[in-house]
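Illustration 12: Glyoxalase/fosfomycin resistance/dioxygenase domain-containing protein.
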Amino acid sequence: MAKHMTYIFSEDARAQAEFYVQALGGEIVSVQTHGELPHATEEYKDKVLHLSLVAAGVNILMSDAVFEPVQQGTAINLVLEFEQEPEAYAAFEKLSEGGTVRDPIKPAFWGSLFGQLEDKFGIRWMITTGS
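Figure caption equivalent — predicted structure in C-alpha coordinate form:
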Protein backbone atom coordinates (compact mmCIF):
# COMPACT_ATOMS: atom_id res chain seq x y z
CA MET A 1 0.00 0.00 0.00
CA ALA A 2 1.28 3.47 -0.86
CA LYS A 3 0.89 6.78 0.93
CA HIS A 4 0.23 9.83 -1.26
CA MET A 5 2.08 13.06 -0.54
CA THR A 6 1.87 16.37 -2.35
CA TYR A 7 5.27 17.92 -3.14
CA ILE A 8 5.20 21.43 -4.58
CA PHE A 9 8.18 23.08 -6.24
CA SER A 10 8.01 26.83 -5.81
CA GLU A 11 9.68 30.11 -6.71
CA ASP A 12 9.40 31.01 -2.98
CA ALA A 13 8.46 28.00 -0.84
CA ARG A 14 8.51 29.90 2.46
CA ALA A 15 6.09 32.60 1.27
CA GLN A 16 3.84 30.04 -0.40
CA ALA A 17 3.78 27.83 2.71
CA GLU A 18 2.97 30.83 4.91
CA PHE A 19 0.08 31.71 2.56
CA TYR A 20 -1.35 28.18 2.86
CA VAL A 21 -1.03 28.22 6.65
CA GLN A 22 -2.87 31.57 6.79
CA ALA A 23 -5.53 30.46 4.29
CA LEU A 24 -6.16 26.96 5.62
CA GLY A 25 -4.86 26.96 9.19
CA GLY A 26 -2.01 24.77 10.34
CA GLU A 27 1.72 25.22 10.70
CA ILE A 28 5.08 24.93 9.02
CA VAL A 29 6.58 21.87 10.69
CA SER A 30 10.16 22.04 9.44
CA VAL A 31 12.43 23.84 6.99
CA GLN A 32 15.80 22.69 5.71
CA THR A 33 17.89 24.92 3.47
CA HIS A 34 20.52 24.19 0.86
CA GLY A 35 22.94 25.83 3.31
CA GLU A 36 22.64 22.73 5.50
CA LEU A 37 24.07 20.52 2.74
CA PRO A 38 27.75 19.58 2.72
CA HIS A 39 29.58 21.80 0.23
CA ALA A 40 26.68 24.28 0.06
CA THR A 41 27.15 27.15 -2.34
CA GLU A 42 26.64 30.76 -1.31
CA GLU A 43 24.16 31.22 -4.18
CA TYR A 44 21.68 28.67 -2.80
CA LYS A 45 22.41 28.70 0.95
CA ASP A 46 19.10 30.37 1.90
CA LYS A 47 16.95 28.49 -0.62
CA VAL A 48 14.53 25.89 0.76
CA LEU A 49 15.69 22.34 0.19
CA HIS A 50 12.75 20.73 2.00
CA LEU A 51 9.80 22.23 3.85
CA SER A 52 7.04 20.32 5.60
CA LEU A 53 3.74 21.90 6.54
CA VAL A 54 0.31 20.86 7.68
CA ALA A 55 -2.57 22.93 6.28
CA ALA A 56 -6.25 22.02 6.67
CA GLY A 57 -5.01 18.84 8.35
CA VAL A 58 -3.15 17.78 5.18
CA ASN A 59 0.61 17.18 4.96
CA ILE A 60 2.25 19.15 2.14
CA LEU A 61 5.93 19.11 1.22
CA MET A 62 7.65 21.94 -0.64
CA SER A 63 10.99 23.02 -2.07
CA ASP A 64 12.37 26.05 -3.86
CA ALA A 65 12.94 25.28 -7.53
CA VAL A 66 16.64 26.09 -7.90
CA PHE A 67 17.80 23.87 -10.75
CA GLU A 68 15.00 24.51 -13.24
CA PRO A 69 12.16 27.04 -13.47
CA VAL A 70 8.71 26.19 -12.21
CA GLN A 71 6.34 25.41 -15.05
CA GLN A 72 2.66 25.51 -14.19
CA GLY A 73 0.39 23.02 -15.87
CA THR A 74 -3.19 21.93 -16.09
CA ALA A 75 -2.77 18.20 -15.55
CA ILE A 76 -2.95 18.19 -11.74
CA ASN A 77 -5.28 19.91 -9.28
CA LEU A 78 -5.04 19.66 -5.51
CA VAL A 79 -8.38 18.63 -4.02
CA LEU A 80 -9.56 19.50 -0.53
CA GLU A 81 -12.78 17.87 0.66
CA PHE A 82 -14.30 19.39 3.77
CA GLU A 83 -16.95 17.91 6.04
CA GLN A 84 -18.63 21.25 6.71
CA GLU A 85 -19.80 23.77 4.10
CA PRO A 86 -18.53 26.84 6.01
CA GLU A 87 -15.01 25.34 6.00
CA ALA A 88 -15.17 24.80 2.23
CA TYR A 89 -16.41 28.34 1.56
CA ALA A 90 -13.74 29.85 3.82
CA ALA A 91 -10.91 27.82 2.26
CA PHE A 92 -12.09 28.73 -1.25
CA GLU A 93 -12.27 32.43 -0.42
CA LYS A 94 -8.86 32.54 1.25
CA LEU A 95 -7.03 30.43 -1.34
CA SER A 96 -8.45 32.53 -4.19
CA GLU A 97 -7.08 35.82 -2.74
CA GLY A 98 -4.75 37.20 -5.40
CA GLY A 99 -5.53 34.26 -7.66
CA THR A 100 -8.16 33.38 -10.24
CA VAL A 101 -11.54 31.80 -9.60
CA ARG A 102 -12.03 29.28 -12.40
CA ASP A 103 -15.43 28.01 -11.22
CA PRO A 104 -17.09 29.66 -8.18
CA ILE A 105 -17.89 27.36 -5.29
CA LYS A 106 -21.56 26.41 -5.40
CA PRO A 107 -23.84 23.40 -5.03
CA ALA A 108 -23.06 20.86 -7.75
CA PHE A 109 -25.57 18.58 -9.44
CA TRP A 110 -24.25 15.58 -7.46
CA GLY A 111 -25.15 17.20 -4.14
CA SER A 112 -21.82 18.57 -2.88
CA LEU A 113 -20.33 22.02 -2.95
CA PHE A 114 -17.68 22.32 -5.66
CA GLY A 115 -15.43 25.09 -6.95
CA GLN A 116 -12.13 25.48 -8.77
CA LEU A 117 -9.47 28.16 -8.44
CA GLU A 118 -5.87 28.90 -9.26
CA ASP A 119 -4.04 30.47 -6.33
CA LYS A 120 -1.63 33.39 -6.65
CA PHE A 121 1.26 30.91 -6.94
CA GLY A 122 -0.27 29.16 -9.97
CA ILE A 123 -1.46 26.05 -8.10
CA ARG A 124 -4.90 24.78 -9.13
CA TRP A 125 -7.30 23.67 -6.40
CA MET A 126 -10.67 21.96 -6.32
CA ILE A 127 -12.62 22.61 -3.13
CA THR A 128 -15.54 20.35 -2.31
CA THR A 129 -17.63 18.85 0.45
CA GLY A 130 -18.44 15.20 1.01
CA SER A 131 -21.58 13.99 -0.72
